[in-house]
Amino acid sequence: MSQSLSAMMYIRNNKHRIAVPVVSLCLCLVLTYLTGFLLSTTEISCASVYLESTQFMQFISLSDQSLGVKTTMDPSEIKKEISRRNEKTEEIAALLAQHDGIQTAYTANFLTAEISPAIGRADTFFPLLEKEELPSLLSYSGAALVEGRMPEKPGEIVIDRASMNNDGSELGGYYNYTNYLESYRIVGILDSDLYFGCGIPAEDQSDIKIIILISNIKDIAAELEKENIHPGTGDMIFDYNYGKEIMQNQIQNAISTSTSYMYGGVLIILLLLLMVIYTMYLRERHNEWCLYYSIGFSKMSIYLSAMRELLFTFGAAVLAGTAVIIVSVVLLKYFAIDPYGLKCRYFDMNSIQTILCSYSFLLGMLQIPVQYALSRIRTIDAMEDDLY
């Protein structure tokens, strides 16, 4: 026969049978994408700290050895040591400020800021400067005050809304409240694309500790080498290269490993489920296919009809899953991501590639029961003797 078999006829008459694999595939798609979406909050939030912010602001904390300051255990010398350390830090900052690509350099105290995504955490620093220096720092960072006021007294800070939400603090309250040694009163809220804050150091903070550079330089260690300063294990350089290393080794690799195991487990379970269900369906359709074969339809026509049924099943699962994903992503962002000050991406290409590869693998594996069923087709006069 030249005409082809209609796949839609079987689908219309067996909606409940088609619904089972459609729902299974749909749940697999939704689970895969939403898992990637939720994990992306960790990657995107940490990338904001380690990759985006370090492209315009870097932090340097040098050890006494790198500063060339001798450390003594004499309590009476502590103030003098702090003074020498501060002077040397200011001297190095002044030298770095003259390098090409560095707009300015601050010497300052800092407040450790902890951003807590779904998995792990990312640590950054909020500069603590003199009151007169804060407006220029906000200008460099692209942040703007949208609520409250600028810091005026020691121990006051302004921070962006995402950092405040992530910490669970509020305007007029204290940031890092659980750490009383680093609790600062929030007097203003910033509009910023990054996790960012700044303020005035507390009165008991006299040690500078850190250099803050406003630049687009990715390798600050190379700039220090130009001044004959060789960073060692006791030094902290928070620049783009450091952030890239942290993202690769501690965040992306960990997420990739855990998701690979999870996706593999889901795929194996779904494959076993579909193989069992589809084999049962094909067993029940054996007589039907034998009848088609007896009245003149070729095995290729029967195979193409089966493939159209499978493609419809996968397509329906994709459409239904996409609708569920869109609704779920919007709700998750509104109720579970924005309120905690996290960042995410709606369009996750990695998850989409995983889904496409998984569906291609499943479609390929389902060829096994289909080909086996086709090999068992007999003409109608032999149906009664078939022990399928």
Tell me the layout of helices and strands.
Layout: H1 7-13, H2 15-52, E1 57-61, H3 64-67, H4 78-96, E2 102-115, E3 122-128, H5 134-141, E4 144-148, E5 156-160, H6 161-167, E6 174-175, E7 184-191, E8 197-199, E9 210-215, H7 220-226, E10 236-238, H8 240-284, H9 286-294, H10 299-337, H11 349-365, H12 367-375
Parallel strand pairs: 5-7
Antiparallel strand pairs: 1-9, 1-10, 2-3, 2-9, 4-7, 5-8, 6-7
Give your account of this protein's structure.
The chain is an alpha+beta fold and 388 residues long. The chain contains 12 helices and 10 strands. The chain has 2 domains: 7-47 and 252-385, no CATH class; 88-215, no CATH class. The strands form 2 sheets. The chain has a 5-stranded antiparallel β-sheet with strand order 3-2-9-1-10. Helix 1 (7-13) packs across helix 10 and helix 8 (240-284) runs parallel beside helix 11. The mean pLDDT is 87. The longest helix is centred in the C-terminal third of the chain and has 45 residues, at 240-284.
